[in-house]
Specification:
Elements (H helix, E strand, L loop, with lengths): L36 E5 L3 H11 L9 E5 L8 H14 L5 E5 L6 H12 L5 E6 L2 E3 L3 H11 L6 E5 L17 E4 L7 E4 H7 L23 H14 L4 H11 L3 E5 L4 E3 L39 H4 L4 H9 L8 H10 L3 H13 L1 H10 L4
Parallel strand pairs: 1-2, 1-4, 2-3, 6-9
Antiparallel strand pairs: 4-8, 5-10, 6-8, 7-9
Helix pairs in contact: 1-2, 9-11, 10-11
Length: 371
């Protein structure tokens, strides 16, 4: 399957000032039908408990929770999963809840993708939290208003409560509480049925890349991390629905609305049941989080900030790739990057990276691993 790009629709409004749109979320009326709050959980009741407690303390209570609880990988997961279900059932005393307990382990990616697809058979939009996303009390209210104000903006793929800013981006240059991003953040976000169905993660492979090669993904200050993540997904034959959603959005020339300051905190680092983020919490994770933050001011236009819109030079991209320990270039990647090199120095650095990492390439070739 291949995506169809939205050339004719991608830029309906990006350069137009939103004179008819509210300037603040407080001016946005809540929709008549509020979206469900979707939660995915697995075997971390100690993390899920405070999440459910904060949901019940929201300034605007969700009319419905829909929880997708993944099945056990091992027998020892079963009591932990049951503990999660018990917590969810207790939560149903204050908020109506639908619990979908998977009979077998789908894995995080398939549980999310299948869950969203199921929800969108009956709902136009959804708000999402993982079982380690601790939201501020204003979270559900703000997300509902964001979904309402951008509902008729097809180039907006999602709205989020979390962001980590590139170190090169000065937060003082962001005038509103939100800004336009090419990078997608799943920790506390919302989206709509039509966007989800168009990007269609349900019918693509876990390593799917509509740009075909990782080095063909448009490189910017924000997407350089996405390029690196896609490289490792392909080479290690792993899956990550967040990266696939990000790349699909890029291919369709869609963007995301994210906050300058996070109003959701991730508390899952270092947990024994965490597959992706193990070890101590890194400095970037909650660096822009504020427990008292109530976002309000909306961006005046859909333009990307100049630093985020500017293409990354070949030198800068190669520097980013070189900083990734163990990352290599096969011959086709080397040739592909050479063709796009924008200076002799960029060309030289591509060759240097190729040569320096040749031992890794040879070792993988001898082991029969993907090159």
């Amino acid at each position: 399957m291949s995506f169809t790009r939205d050339h004719e629709h991608a830029h309906d409004e990006p350069n137009q000032h939103m004179v008819s749109r509210p300037k603040a979320l407080d001016e946005v009326a809540l929709p008549e039908t509020l979206p469900p709050l979707v939660i995915t959980a697995f075997a971390r009741p100690d993390l899920l408990a405070p999440i459910l407690q904060t949901i019940q303390q929201q300034t605007l209570l969700p009319p419905q929770l829909i929880a997708f609880v993944d099945g056990p990988r091992k027998a020892r997961d079963e009591p932990l999963i049951q503990a999660c279900i018990n917590l969810l059932e207790d939560c149903a005393r204050s908020i109506p809840i639908e619990i979908v307990a998977r009979s077998q382990n789908l894995g995080c990616d398939r549980n999310v993708i299948l869950g969203f697809t199921e929800v969108f058979t009956t709902h136009e939009a959804l708000v999402y939290l993982e079982d380690d996303d601790l939201p501020n009390a204003c979270f559900y209210d703000r997300m509902c208003r964001l979904l309402a104000v951008y509902r008729d903006c097809p180039q907006i793929a999602s709205v989020s409560s979390y962001a980590t800013l590139p170190t090169e981006l000065d937060p003082k240059t962001i005038e509103a509480d939100f800004f336009v991003s090419r990078r997608f953040f799943s920790w506390g976000f919302g989206t709509w049925r039509d966007r989800w169905q168009q990007l269609d993660l349900m019918h693509v492979s876990g390593q799917y890349n509509p740009f075909e090669q990782f080095y063909n993904i448009p490189a910017t200050m924000q997407t350089q991390r996405t390029i690196i993540n896609q490289f490792w997904l392909e080479k290690n034959r792993k899956t990550d629905w967040v990266i696939t959603f990000t790349i699909a959005s890029l291919y369709h020339q869609k963007v995301h609305i994210i906050p300058k300051t996070s109003f959701v905190e991730n508390i899952g680092f270092g947990h024994a049941q965490s597959e992706t983020y193990r070890g101590a919490e890194q400095a970037w994770v909650n660096a822009h989080y504020d427990a008292d933050f109530i976002p309000n001011r909306l961006p005046a236009q859909f333009d990307l900030l100049p630093p985020l819109a500017s293409p990354l030079s070949t030198c800068a991209l190669i520097q980013s790739l070189t900083e990734q320990r163990g990352l290599w270039l096969n011959l086709s990647a080397c040739i592909g990057l050479l063709r796009t090199a924008d200076s002799w120095l960029g060309w030289l650095r591509v060759v240097q990276l190729f040569v320096i990492r040749l031992p890794i390439l040879f070792q993988r070739w001898r082991s029969g691993l993907p090159l």
